[in-house]
C-alpha cells in the first residue's frame, strides 16, 4: 500500500521505472520542436494521478499530414514563381529597393532592409527580400 501511494504521489510508472528524460521539471515539453520534430510522449502509467497518468493504450504511428509539405519549394513551384516574376515584374517598393542596393553603400543597404521591414512586417522577411533583390 505504501508503495502504491508513493507511486501515486511521485507519478512513477507501475513497474517502478520513473523516466524523467522525456519531460522537463514542469512536466511539459521544453524548447521549440518545429513543425515536424514532435517529442514522443512517455508511456502511460495506468494511474489516475501523476505525470504519466492515464489509461494504458498502444500508440499508433501516424502518417505525416499533407499540410506539413505546404510552402516547400519544389522544381515546379520554382518555375511557376519565375514565370510570374517575368510577366508581372517588380512592385514599386521592390524597384526602390533595387535602386538603393545599386548604390552599394552600407547606409543604403540598411535603408533597403528598413524599407522591406516596413512593407513586409518582420525583420526576417525583410532580410529575405533584401537578399532576393540583391541577386
In short:
The chain has 135 residues and is an all-alpha fold. Helix content is 46%, strand content 0%.
Shape: elongated
Characterize the biggest β-sheet: none
Helical proportion?
40-55%
H and E order:
HHHHH
Total count of strands = 0
Strand content: under 5%
Q: What average pLDDT do the residues reach? A: 81
Oligomer: single chain
Helix/strand class: mainly alpha
Distance between the termini: 72 Å
Number of helices: 5
Uncertain residue segments: 16-32
Question: Radius of gyration, Cα only, in angstroms?
Answer: 26 Å
Q: What does this protein look like?
A:
Mean pLDDT is 81; it is low at 16-32. This protein has helices at residues 2-10, 75-88, 92-103, 106-120, 123-134. It starts with a helix and ends with a helix. By secondary structure, it is an all-alpha fold. It is elongated, with a radius of gyration of 26 Å. The protein contains five helices and no strands.
List the SSEs and their pairings.
Blueprint: H1 2-10, H2 75-88, H3 92-103, H4 106-120, H5 123-134
List keywords for this structure.
single chain, 5 helices, elongated, 135 residues, mainly alpha
